[in-house]
Amino acid sequence: MSIDPRKIQIQLQKPELPLHIFDTVTSTNQVVWDLLAEGNPFPLMAIASQQTAGRGQWGRNWVSAVGGLYLSIGLKLQITAQNAPHLTLFSAWGIAENLPRYGLPVKLKWPNDLILQGRKLGGIKSETRIQQETITHCVIGVGINWCNQTPDPGITIQSYDKPHNIDSLETLAAITTNGVFRGYDHYLSNGIDNLLRNYIEILDSVGRKVIIEGMTGTIIGVSTQGELKVSLQAPGSKTTLKLPPGTLSLGYSQGET
Question: What b/e sequence results for 187-215 when a residue is b if at least 16 CB atoms lie within 10 Å of its CB, and e otherwise?
């Protein structure tokens, strides 16, 4: 499946963004780091029709069959290293906020998944380069199911049976890219607290009951460090836990959203 860079470029809010298009790569995130090492300045973007070793969270491989969107955006920035979780927060929010403008009612599943009708539509993977406790460069990797085969509980945009205005993989790439930059610009202009309030508004799990060490808790939000906030109540006491990503699996509802 060939990708036409011209169709992407004309839909970008930053049309000067350099695009690098590939048929098959190991990982678009790795391609972007390689382009930086070769002297290419950030920002830039790499898109591939297929990945053979896509990188997901916690060292997992990302299934990257032909027909999906696999892109990575390289950014040059100055963010304190301890705020690395902000990268995924602003990217996920920006994409999930932009897609509904085209008729796709996407929500967020903590910490980095895009969901549609309770199924996984895509995910975000951020990587960084750090010097003297400061993030100087980052790569935001995004995978979204367009018409590719997906493992359960995945869903593709082309299998979504309600009207929307996403007519091609190139349009999806532009919407996604514009979403990442929208999230980044919003973060720079308004700060993490404002961004986080907006992120939580489209988080699918707020109010959900979860069991932690035999105790029932209620999900109440996400911290500025990307931790899931869970309220635990017992007779005469109330405690809020902050759970780092990877410590609790929320699963998928696989219902209408």
Answer: beeeebeebbebbbebbbbeeeebeeeee
- Residue 40 sits in a domain whose CATH number is 3.30.930.10
168 and 76 Cβ atoms separated by less than 8 Å: no
What digits encode the pLDDT tens for the residues 183-212? 999 999 999 999 999 999 999 989 999 988
- Asked if 242 and 197 count as a contact pair (C-beta separation under 8 A), the reply is no
Strand order in the sheet with 113-116: 19-25, 44-51, 69-80, 134-144, 119-131, 113-116, 107-109
Q: Is residue 237 part of a domain?
A: no
Model confidence at 180: pLDDT above 80 = yes
User: Looking at the predicted structure, is the pLDDT value of residue 61 above 70?
Assistant: no
Residue 44, beta-bridge partner list: 74
- Sign of the alpha-carbon torsion through 61, 250, 100, 162: positive
Which of 17, 19, 1 is CA-nearest to residue 68? 1
Closest CA to 22 of 89, 72, 77: 72
pLDDT of residue 220: 95
Is residue 85 within 8 Å of residue 96, measured between CB atoms? no
**Does 250 reside within a domain?**
no
Residues in the chain: 257
